[in-house]
Amino acid sequence: MKKLSKRDKRVLIGGGVLVVLYVVVFHLILPFYDAGNTVDGQLDQKKRILRAAVRTIQEREVHAAQVAEIDKVLAQYEQRLLDAPDATTAATQLDEIVRALAAENGVTLTKSNPLQERKTGDRYTKVTVQINLDGDLTKTTAFLHGLSAHSKFLLVENFSVSKFRLSSTLQPRMEVSGFIRLS
Length: 183
Hints:
Strand content: 15-25%
Distance between the termini: 106 Å
Number of domains: 2
Helix content: 55-70%
């Protein structure tokens, strides 16, 4: 074998160093660096997911409190519904309420006619009674105030008034409605 010159030895040593550097950099250091970046990215993603989950859990308590408040208000409103289990019984209860208020306020109930019930939403039915009254302005106003201040939610619709020319008697005609909850 031929002896290597100084120059060839330097080239071989330099080439060997370059090969060793190449192997160290591209096969040892860079894979660890890339793996570290990948792990950092995965950790950041997991942190974001964890923060979102914590926020959802915290908001869940807030939403549960809001739902509880809404249920409480709904229960209060449902107490203002008529107590009848069906539309026929509710129409009778509504007629009794109207008659009691008319007698209490000195208004004559000349006609009371239950109308067809109407379903309102998924769980409620609107029960309506058409009534004709006979009374003066003060008593009729007191009757209407009694309807609006009643413990049950009563709705006055299609209100019309007739008046005799020579007297102070009014003849209002209206529909009074109440609501029941369907079972």
